[in-house]
Amino acid sequence: MAHPSQLGLQDAASPVMEELIHFHDHALMIVFLISTLVLYVIVAMVSIKLTNKYILDSQEIEIVWTILPAVILIMIALPSLRILYLMDEINDPHLTIKAMGHQWYWSYEYTDYEDLGFDSYMIPTQDLTPGQFRLLETDHRMVVPMESPVRILVSAEDVLHSWAVPALGVKMDAVPGRLNQTAFITSRPGVFYGQCSEICGANHSFMPIVVEAVPLEHFENWSSLMIEDA
C-alpha cells in the first residue's frame, strides 16, 4: 500500500499493474527527454546572440521536427493500446465476485457459491486494533485465491461509485442499473487496499475496499467457514 512521502506508484500485485508501471516509466522518460531538449533550446535562444541564417529557413529541420513528434507519439501509443486490450481481457475466470456499491459500504456476492455473500463496512477509528489502518480497514475482507483469474462484476444500488484497488491495477465504475466487469490475477499473497473513487455523497471517504489474496487451500477453508456461519 502507499506510505507517507511516496513519490511513485504502489508496488504491483498483478501482472497488469506491472505493465502499467513499466509504461509509466517509459512515458516519463520520453517526457523528461523532450523537456530537457526544449529547455536547452530556450536557454540557447536567450543566451546566444549569434544567428545562423541557414536555420531560419531550412527544409531539413522542418522535416525532422514534423516526423520526430509523430514517431514519439507512436512509441507512446502502441504500448498504451496494448495495455488497454490486456486490461479488457477476461479469459476463463476461476472465480466470479459481484461487488455492489451502496451509500456507503460495499457488498460482495460470490456467485460460484450457493450462499456466500456479505457486506463490508469501514471499521470506525475508535474500534481499530494496533496495526490497522484508519479509513482503510473493513469488518469483512474480500478474500480471493492468489494466482487465479478473478472476475469482478461491479454495479451500484443507489448512486455512482467506483471500485478501485491501485496495487491490482483495477478501477471500474459502479453504475446503478448497469453491470460492468473487470478482472485481475494476484501474483502474490497479501492484503491490498482501495477506496471508492467516485464522489458518491457525504460519506464518500468512508467506504474502503480490502482485498486479501491467499493460497487456494486457505481460500477453500475460508469459504467453507463462511458458508457454515451463514
Automatic annotation (TrEMBL):
Gene: COII
Pfam families reported for this sequence: COX2, COX2_TM
Keywords annotated in UniProt: Copper, Electron transport, Magnesium, Membrane, Metal-binding, Mitochondrion, Mitochondrion inner membrane, Respiratory chain, Translocase, Transmembrane, Transmembrane helix, Transport
Catalytic activity: 4 Fe(II)-[cytochrome c] + O2 + 8 H(+)(in) = 4 Fe(III)-[cytochrome c] + 2 H2O + 4 H(+)(out)
Chief localisation class: mitochondrion
Residue intervals of the Cytochrome oxidase subunit II transmembrane region profile domain: 1-91
Function as written in the Swiss-Prot or TrEMBL entry: Component of the cytochrome c oxidase, the last enzyme in the mitochondrial electron transport chain which drives oxidative phosphorylation. The respiratory chain contains 3 multisubunit complexes succinate dehydrogenase (complex II, CII), ubiquinol-cytochrome c oxidoreductase (cytochrome b-c1 complex, complex III, CIII) and cytochrome c oxidase (complex IV, CIV), that cooperate to transfer electrons derived from NADH and succinate to molecular oxygen, creating an electrochemical gradient over the inner membrane that drives transmembrane transport and the ATP synthase.
Annotated cofactor note: Binds a copper A center.
Top-level taxon in the UniProt lineage: Eukaryota
Statement: the UniProt record of this protein carries the keyword Electron transport: yes
Family of the protein in this entry: Belongs to the cytochrome c oxidase subunit 2 family.
Bilayer-spanning residue ranges: 27-51, 63-85
Names of required cofactors: Cu cation
Domain Cytochrome oxidase subunit II copper A binding: 92-225
Entry's localization field: Mitochondrion inner membrane
Organism: Encrasicholina heteroloba (shorthead anchovy)
GO molecular function, one term: oxidoreductase activity
Gene Ontology biological process terms, A to Z: ATP synthesis coupled electron transport
Topology within the bilayer: Multi-pass membrane protein
Any single Gene Ontology cellular-component annotation: mitochondrial inner membrane
Name of protein: Cytochrome c oxidase subunit 2
